[in-house]
Specification:
This protein has 456 residues and is of the alpha+beta class. It has three domains: 214 residues, Orthogonal Bundle (Triger factor/SurA peptide-binding fold); 115 residues, Chitinase A, domain 3 (Roll); 98 residues, Chitinase A, domain 3 (Roll), CATH 3.10.50.40. The protein contains 17 helices and 13 strands. The protein has a four-stranded antiparallel β-sheet with strand order 9-4-11-10. The chain has a four-stranded antiparallel β-sheet with strand order 5-8-7-6, sandwiched between helices.
Length: 456
């Protein structure tokens, strides 16, 4: 099973890249022709399709940028996919599951990432010729499976650790001419404060919502008013229709109000983290329901941004006076949940570390840190979040590492991560050997030569 688990990580993370996502959702080859599909491997009731294999092979081709690929790459991908299906099969046997909230959170994270990469929701929808909702629906099963696979991996190898001695031994075995060369990398932290609308903006929005509610109760068409006034750009195109959702897939305030209604009924004004909603229940089917809504968001003005700026200025002063660390301040006060849990540090989505190549930085952050010294913190800077909210943030340049060849002094954490990955892979390898005989596995004769179940 040479390289099996190294590539398995690639397979599990393949859908984090925009190019790979395009192929997965469109089901196309680079030439634009549909992939001829069929079942290549069966693992109990799990299957590996030819399109699964070809989509990942295509991604590897794109990343290689014209360089020759290993001749056995398709076999290695198939081995990894088989491992993933074995993880799913055993997860089903062991009742290992993930929640709808976890799936929806991951879907939202990926959509926000794709939107950030491509520029806007509209551009993303035009790129795929599909709405955000449709993209999420098509990804939902894949994301759930990937989260279950990850949970199984965590149960198998999550407690594995490495000692400093093991890290040094791992590094010493890397040939000198194989040491990686790192470009300039930085560690950047942020603390974010959203600009909260003042009372006048809230009251103005409520007045508009009350007017719309009165018009609907007087007989005007909800869908037409949603198309005209709703500030949810995705559902507004469809008369506010959100489609079917299961319980716990929408925010609690919205779900509670929608499920109190009879079909055709109209809710009072409902407040959630997204703004104010008017909700109409369309239909219920078992544990699912279909609804439409009109969303309005109170706008924040200059005074609201100024209030957040003043708050961050005080927090910045405390950090600079050493009365609180940046990491603790981010955890306690930042309103960007993703980075707050990491002490404010932005995460490298490719490997999960806090080290960011300069070409991965948001341009606004790049030009901010370009003139900063390591350890310094910027003054509060206004910006707009991925979901379009006005906000202010302070930015901390924790480290700036110039281009260099890997060494233990500068890259200990990266080398330790690689050593840990190797040790976890060994644990997964041993698990595979113990469990491959506990399930039914059948491989298409075309790929019999790949020796999917071999250990060497």
């Amino acid at each position: 099973m040479t390289h099996l688990f190294r590539l398995a990580a690639v397979v599990l993370l393949a859908f984090h890249t925009l190019g790979a996502q395009a192929q997965v959702l469109a089901g196309l080859t680079r030439a634009g022709k549909p992939v001829a599909d069929g079942i290549l491997v069966k693992v109990d009731n799990q299957i590996v399709l030819r399109s699964d294999l070809e989509n990942i092979y295509l991604q590897q081709q794109q990343q290689a940028e014209g360089k020759p690929l290993p001749p056995d790459l398709r076999c290695r991908i198939l081995q990894s996919l088989t491992l993933n299906k074995l993880l799913l099969a055993k997860a089903e046997t062991d009742s290992v599951t993930v929640t709808d909230d976890q799936v929806n959170g991951e879907l939202n994270r990926r959509m926000n990432y794709f939107i950030q990469q491509i520029g806007s929701e509209k551009k993303l929808e035009e790129y795929y010729n599909k709405s955000i909702r449709q993209l999420k629906d098509e990804l939902r099963v894949q994301v759930r499976e990937q989260l279950v696979q990850q949970k199984m991996q965590d149960q198998i190898s999550g407690k594995v650790t490495v000692t400093p001695r093991e890290v040094r031994q791992f590094f010493s075995k890397i040939p000198k001419d194989s040491l990686p060369y790192y470009s300039t990398e930085v560690e950047v932290g942020q603390i974010v404060k959203l600009a909260k609308p003042d009372q006048k903006a809230e009251q103005a929005t409520l007045a508009k919502m009350n007017d719309l509610r009165a018009r609907i109760l007087a007989g005007e068409d909800f869908a037409k008013l949603a198309t005209q006034f709703s500030e949810d750009p995705i559902s507004a195109k469809d008369g506010g229709n959100l489609g079917f959702f299961k319980r716990k897939e929408l925010v609690p305030e919205y779900e509670a109000a929608a499920l109190r209604l009879q079909p055709g009924g109209l809710s009072p004004i409902v407040k959630s983290q997204f703004g104010y909603h008017l909700i109409q229940l369309i239909e219920r089917k078992g544990d699912s329901y279909n609804s439409r809504h009109i969303l309005m968001k109170p706008t924040s003005g200059t005074a609201d941004v100024d209030a957040s700026t003043a708050e961050l200025s005080k927090l910045r002063t405390r950090i600079m006076q050493d009365s609180i660390t940046f990491a603790k301040a981010a955890k306690d006060f930042s309103e960007d949940k993703e980075s707050a849990g990491n002490g404010g540090l932005l995460q490298n989505r490719r490997d999960g570390s806090s080290y960011l190549p300069l070409d991965q930085l948001d341009p606004a952050i790049f030009f901010t840190i370009d003139t900063m010294k390591v350890g310094s913190i910027s003054k509060p800077l206004p910006y707009r979040t991925d979901d379009g909210k006005d906000a202010v943030r302070i930015i901390w340049l924790k480290s700036n590492t110039p281009p260099h060849q890997a060494n233990l002094k500068d890259d200990y954490q990266k080398i330790a991560t690689a050593a840990l990955t190797q040790k976890k892979n060994k644990a997964l390898d041993e698990w595979f050997l113990r469990n491959r005989g506990t399930v039914f596995i059948e491989v298409d004769p075309e790929y019999a030569g790949c020796k999917v179940l071999d250990t060497e």
